[in-house]
Amino acid sequence: DISPLLKDPVAFRTLIDLLEDHVRASFPKIDFIAGLDSRGFLIGPPLALRLGIGFVPVRKKGKLPGATESISYSLEYGRAELEIQSDAVEPGQKVVIVDDLLATGAGCSTCTMCAACELLKRLKAEILECLVVIELKALKGSEKLNSIPFYSLLQYD
Questions:
Q1: Which tens digit of pLDDT belongs to each residue from 140-153?
Q2: What structural domains and CATH numbers belong to the chain?
């Protein structure tokens, strides 16, 4: 839960500082930060602003205007759908996908991050990295990203 982090302006600023430092050191050229609904919307825009680039929302179905690309995926408790605007990125644009947590212990079909990666691949974006604040390592979620680079600021077993 990142709620305590969000309540503390010094801690939140430090989080964005650390993520900015990581992205700048890792990628000399990046076009967009894509944030996952909903907590990726809290981290992604300030990070994009710091980097001087745009932010692209990846939202739950029915929340975006205009033409969208969508994907349905399974969760432990049912199904979910994510969408991205069809014109959100141009082919070849470089994107880092951001969320608060990677915790899935089930197959890639249940991974919200995996679904977002698939959407961006459909738009022919170049996914530079999946970036999260917290990773629950025992659940091995990063292994389900099919060799897409992955970075977590904090890891817990």
A1: 666 777 779 999 99
A2: 2-155 (3.40.50.2020)
